[in-house]
Amino acid sequence: MKVAPGVPAKKKCTTMPRAAATQVVTYPRPRTKGVLVEASREVKRPLSSFMILASLAAAAALRGCEIADLVPADELRQYRKSRVHRKRSRSAKRANARSRVKRTLVR
Fold it and tell me: pLDDT tens across 5-42, in order?
């Protein structure tokens, strides 16, 4: 049986300063990552908030309760209210315009 590398996750952490991040390293396959990124963009959420909310939903389903029963309301509100407003760079806009021109010329 293969064992995952590293140390098993702890349930309780040491107290950290506010806004300190917890790093979770994942290695999704390219298509899996694409699906997750696309879904998070559809609901206009950062990928991290999207994945945390999905994980909380799964944990709540396992325990047979609601997400609100697992996490304080103000903490849950932070994940739900975070929105991503994507402002495209000039180079991205130019690249998109060029590809649009190419597509119209090919047809």
Answer: 666 767 776 666 666 667 777 788 889 999 999 998 88
| Whole-number Å distance between alpha carbons of 67 and 55 | 10
Is the four-CA dihedral 79, 31, 98, 102 of positive or negative sign? negative
Domain boundaries in the chain? 30-106
Q: 10 Å Cβ neighbour count for 23?
A: 4
Containing H/E element for 90? Answer: helix 90-106
Cα–Cα distance, 46 to 60 (Å, whole number): 21
Rounded CA separation 54/65 (Å)? 14
Given its phi and psi angles, is residue 88 left (phi above 0), alpha (psi -120 to 50 degrees) or beta? beta
DSSP per-residue codes, 71-89: S-HHHHHHHHH--------
* Single-letter code of the amino acid located at 81: K
